Amino acid sequence: MDLAVIISTFERPGHLGRCLASIEAQEDVAGRFEVVVTDDGSRDDTRRLLAAAARHAPFPLTFTTHDHAGFRLARCRNEGVAASTAEYLLFTDGDCILPRDHLRKHLAARQPGWVVGGDCVRLDEPTSQRIDINLIRGGGFHHLIPRGEARRILGKGVRAKAYEWLRLPMRPRLSGNNIALWRTDYERINGFDEQFVGWGLEDRDLQLRLERTGLRVKSILLETAPVHLWHPPAPSFSRNAVGTRNFDYFLMVSDRPAFCIDGLVKPSDDLTPAGVVPPKPVALPRRNVA
């Protein structure tokens, strides 16, 4: 496999089903990618949805989960990476649907020494409700994107290219719903820092530590962006994470090392020869092959 698509989710099976449908509709990448859905301890129909999806998915599909104890997105993403095998990683969220050429565009953008990222198009509640599986399979959901939101993404993409040319630190910004990088680079910094619990700043921290290893960030926004389906904000949400524990933790270590302690590998782990302890994926039924 060339690419591992890591999808984080928590108790939004309706959104996740549409996300998986958009991955099934990807063009020109058949046989080149695997999917890992990494769950934050959902107690609803998420597992049943994935069991049904695994029976017909035209790609390898793996599911990891753990007990829910707060919003632990960093842990989810580390578990997803540990359960995957591909050399290149693409992160997105289960509340996003992907353009039909999203995986192809990311594979084409791979380049040693670079991390590729962007943002997502954000839809309101009424528009999100109009997007169903059939619309996703037919590729007709793009005409529902509001013009103002399309202009926002275009402007952000243009500014990102200027940031790349100016070589500004921490610009363009990485957003966890649209990040791609080499597995070796991810392992070099020990992945996401699992001390980030609750909403926000785990992706900002990841970018800071990646840049401290000499990597640069380039934007893919002018080529592709996921479409984010509306949902109520997380209970721990705060704009820019201001006033949260994550905000205090991010500011606490002004000269944080590139390699985080509580990440993909932990001091207490019984390390495998590769240095990574994979979680035990939840068994899914095998896909029926005609």
Question: What layout of secondary structure does this protein have?
Answer:
Blueprint: E1 3-9, H1 13-24, E2 33-39, H2 46-54, E3 61-64, H3 73-82, E4 88-93, E5 96-97, H4 102-109, E6 114-117, E7 121-122, H5 125-130, H6 133-138, H7 147-166, E8 179-182, H8 183-188, H9 202-211, E9 216-219, E10 227-228, H10 245-252
Parallel strand pairs: 1-2, 1-4, 2-3, 6-9, 7-10
Antiparallel strand pairs: 4-8, 5-10, 6-8
Helix pairs in contact: 1-2
Report on this structure:
There is one protein chain. This protein has one domain: Spore Coat Polysaccharide Biosynthesis Protein SpsA, Chain A, CATH 3.90.550.10. Helices cover 33% and strands 14% of the residues. It is built from ten helices and ten strands. The chain has helices at 13-24, 46-54, 73-82, 102-109, 125-130, 133-138, 147-166, 183-188, 202-211, 245-252, and strands spanning 3-9, 33-39, 61-64, 88-93, 96-97, 114-117, 121-122, 179-182, 216-219, 227-228. Strands 3-2-1-4-8-6-9 form a seven-stranded mixed beta sheet, sandwiched between helices. Strand 2 (33-39), helix 2 (46-54) and strand 3 (61-64) form a beta-alpha-beta unit.
